[in-house]
Amino acid sequence: MKNLRLSKKFSVVFFFTLVLNSQAQDMELPYYQIPEYPEDFGPGNVVARMIDALGFRYYWATEGLTEKDLDYSPSEGARTSKETLKHIHTMSKMILNAADGNPNIRLENPPELSFEEVRKSTLGNIKLASDKIRGKQAEEFEQCNVVFQNGDRESVYPYWNMINGMLSDCMYHTGQIVLLRRITGNPKNPKVSVFSGRLRD
């Protein structure tokens, strides 16, 4: 009987240790909350704030997703949540590449990443892109082109296309994840305030 009580106590302690470790790992990722305001409304700061807004929304849209959530598709032929997250991940790399004007080169056989790896990499790309864009002046955006490279062929677009293209598209698809997880019975944390960029008390 004594051994049984000890075993139960150990199980409870082990469970809470796992939960706390999981929460600690989540808080190590960027965008648990949105960063503080930039010093001014300069063009680089405004764009960086838009990127940060994506990061905050994505963090909480993807926090606590289960395999059931990831495998869900609203209809035959539609993307699953997991496939949508891979799509966002690809675009997050494009957002990062545009900050330096680096070309986007499609890989023939991209590595297969787990959900945790996709989430961590996406948030990392968003954070790096924001850091690179923050503080830029208007004339510096002339170097932040969206470049697609296919062999010797190159297509170049101004940063305007990034704003109405990949950046807005990532916001759109992040909203889809929020909707789909609600359908599967696992809504995002109700304390999330996208207005304040914090969790409500």
TrEMBL record:
InterPro entries, alphabetized: DinB/YfiT-like
Keywords noted in UniProt: Signal
Stretch forming the signal peptide: 1-24
Keyword Signal among UniProt keywords: yes
Protein name: DinB family protein
Species name: Flagellimonas ochracea
Lineage: Bacteria, Pseudomonadati, Bacteroidota, Flavobacteriia, Flavobacteriales
